[in-house]
Structures are given as structure tokens and as C-alpha cells.
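Incident log entry.

Two folding requests arrived from the same account within the same minute. Monitoring flagged them as a possible duplicate submission, but the sequences differ. Recording both here for audit purposes.

Request one:
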Amino acid sequence: MADIKEIMKPENLVYGKSKVLTDNVMSYCPGCTHGVVHKLIAEVIEEMDIQEKTIGICPVGCSVLAYNFLDIDWQQAAHGRAPAVATAVSRLKPEKIVFAYQGDGDLASIGTAEIIHACNRGENIVVIFINNGIYGMTGGQMAPTTLEGMPTSTSPYGRDIKLAGHPLRITELIAQLPGTTFVTRQSAHTPAAVRKCKKAIRKAFDNVEGKKGTSFIEVVSTCSSGWKLSPVKSNEWMVEHMFPFYKLGDLKDE
């Protein structure tokens, strides 16, 4: 049997958990995209050696749990107000790396004014936007990003455009604003997608270090519990229904 000390040598290490991740057990539902994105953020922070200078802003919703899993400084914001709080922190502490971590019910609904104006001003922050098409934590209600015909707890027969209006592609709106320097839409459902998403997060954090303005990353995501599907079926449903409407790729890169 191989000696355990030999096996544990750094050159034999295939993967190691980032030191930025805490030892807390992830409390997200099975298949939830939040955990994957947390891992990517932690790896980027560690690789850039910015753990001591990074400040995260999390609002209400599943995203608020991030402070349990990423060992950095955090500030909670009221529902939708993360960009406003991030603006204050970034201006008061310009030497820090500041990012807001928000869901679609938060960012694209109650926080629409905050995100639009922060991006229009070009605040030197990163915004990571988890879009699963519903309000996840509060019971699976219809969100601005809910697709036409998509069932939710408040639209059990599917979203009716005549009643509720069209799904909101807020990332396309944000890409038009002069203060944004990098706007992209990614996912994290396959190893290849995870690599692309991590590359986008790294670019966004590099932009903050370079004082380039607002970088905005949408991650099209699943919510197995809210969608009432298994993790595997949720990924399949996302690819079939979400991706045609929320097309992946860079929308702006300056």
C-alpha cells in the first residue's frame, strides 16, 4: 500500500478545497447552482490573493446565506438594495474589492432602480446575478424573469403575458449602460460551463482591481425545489427552456 504521506504530496493533489470556503455544510437544496458559484468565487479570491481585501454584499433571499460559506467580510443589505450598499462601501473603501451577490427576484424586481443606476454610474463593483426564473427562498413565486408559460406557485398555469407582462432580460438592458465595462451571461451546469463561468468571474474581479467600472455576470441557474424537478431534470429543463431565451455569452466587453 502506498504511503499516505507520499499520496498527500502537493504534486499528487488533484483538487483541494479553497481556503476561502468555510467548513460549514452547504444548506442549499440538492442541485442548487448557488453552491457551485460560491466555489468559483472562493477559488478566484484565493488565486488573486485578495481574501483580506474583498467585501461581499448580500441581500434577502437564498443569496443571503453566502456569508455562511465564504470566509470574507460581508455586509447584508435590504431586499434589492445590494448595489446601493456596494456603492457606499466601494466609495468609502476604494482599496477594497467589492461585489454584490443577488438573485433575480431581488435584483430584477424590487432592486431594479438600484442596479440600473449603479451600473449607469459605473460604480467600481462586481455584480453576480443568479437567475433561476423564480423567487426561490420565499415559495417559488413568479419573478420578472419567469418565462412565458412557466408554472410557479403564483402562476400555476404558467406565466400569462397579458396578465403579468413579458419576462425581463435585464442583462441586455444593463449592457446598454455606459458605466458597464463587462457584461456576460453564463451558466454552471456542466464542467465546460463551470470553467467559462469561473473565467468570467476572474475577469470581473480583475476589472475592479483595474478600476474599470461595473462588471455584471448573470448566471442562468436552476431551482430544483421551486421548479419541482430533480436536479438532473432541472438542468435539462434549463437547457431546453431557459437558454433559448437567456442566451449565454458576452454581451459587452470593453
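Request two (distinct sequence, not a duplicate):
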Amino acid sequence: MTFEQLRIFVEVARLQHLTKAAANLRLTQSAVSAAIKALENRYDVKLFDRVGRSLSLNPVGKAFLVEAKEVLHRVQMAESMLSSASDLSSGELNVMASRTAGTYWLPAHLSRFKQRFPGIRLKIAIGNSEEVAKAVLAGSVEIGIVEAPMDEVPHEGMTWFQVKEDEMIVVVAAGHPWADGNAVISSLGETSWVLREHGSGTRSVFDRLLASKGVAATSVSIEMEFPDNQAVICAVEAGFGATLISRAAVASAIEQGRLVPVNISPIPRPYFLLRHAGRYRTKAADVFERQILDMD
């Protein structure tokens, strides 16, 4: 049974006339007749009662017509879905971002994309950089945004490129000894620290800061660890120590005087967009990727 045979059968059943059906389908009458006969012979049934030159559906034909119409409808729906995907009138964009990028950078890009393509459903997930990379590798998301250097996250089989450069700064509460903008800091071990968890891009930058200063991680007092920037900010504001964090994450707290930047040079940190090299690339994801490049 072929799609063409179904299409011919439904049209003949609608008109109950071979010649008229052939004209509507732009086929010869012999081709239409052959298609009906092929169906009947293949399954050893009769679909029409033939009285002279007239055709009428018999009980088998009537039952088959219901199923044939449903199959054609599903095919039309499938074609419509593919057409919509090609013109971005519908579909899905599946993105996962690490927490800082996902909170302070990604929303503006998503908002612009949604304004341009309101029919695309956005599915957004947040995790740390390691979790994002694993999700892209597993195929559970198509686009990932991470903050950690690519040599510190799983990336085999992926393509990636930089889309943004963040700035990491050390901040403390207003009453902290380092809150004086002129304070000379001789050792990072002079204070306790409140940090993001291992696996996050933020923690990776902190570990690199220690290495650049020749400081062993074991010599630094880590008071608390959190999987969330806001929790880190609240703990620092409460006086539990210093933290290294994205400037974007603490901009309002600095403006309001709740946190103070420390006299340590800011550290640049790139954001990377990840795609799986071997998986199907949707048009929605490709357009979103190009939009990011155009905006930055």
C-alpha cells in the first residue's frame, strides 16, 4: 500500500467516479483504475460496488475510508510540521546555560529571539558548566553556554566558540577589612571565602587565581560553598568572608553599598557556546547562534 494509492482511493470515494477523480488528480483514468485494482488485489477485497459505470463504497470500503483519511491527515500534519520548522513559525529551541551566564546574559538574547519568532517554544535549563557540557554531549539540549575553560569541561565531539567575555571581581561586605579600596592584600589566605561549587565556571576561575598567586588550595579557608550565586552574595553580605564572582551578578549590591569591590585586578572570563558536532542541527538553534554573534 502506498501513499499515492490512498490518495487516489479517497478521491474516488469522495466523487464515486473514476473519470472525475482522475481529472482532479491530474492522472489518466487508467492509472486511477489500476491503483484501485492494485489495492483490492493486494488484500483480496472489494472496496466498491460497481453497477454499470457507477461506483459506490461497500461496507469494507466505508470502513477503509475512515482509516485512509486518518493516514492522509497525519501525513499532512507531518508535512506542515516540517514546513513550519523550515520557516520558524513553530518548533522548539532547547538551551542549557551555566548559572551566571543563564541568569545575567542569556535572557536578553532569548527575549530578542522570542520577539522575532513567537511560535518557537523555548526550553531553558540551568546548571553548572560541567552539567551543561554533559547535557550537550548526551543530546538532551542542542545549545550549551558555559563559563569554564574548555579544557576543564567534557568537550569531545563538540564544537565551541567564544560569545562573551565576563569580568570576575573579588567583593566583600562593607565592614570587611578589605573593604577599603586602598587595602594592600598580601595573601588570599588572610580571609575566609564563600565560593561556588566545584564544577562551576566561577569556581574554576577562583582555582586559577590561587594558582597564579602560588597559593595552595589547602591553605585557603573556605567558609561555605553554594550552587547558586545569590546564596553566595547573601553569605558575603552577612559577613562570612570574600568571594570571587561575576561583576554582573553583584552590580546592584555594589551600587547599593551592600558589597564593595576589593583591590584585586579583575579577571577576564570567556563564555563559550557549545554544539554537538555529530547531531542534527535545527534551524531554530542555527538562527539563535547567529543572533548571538550579531548582538555581541
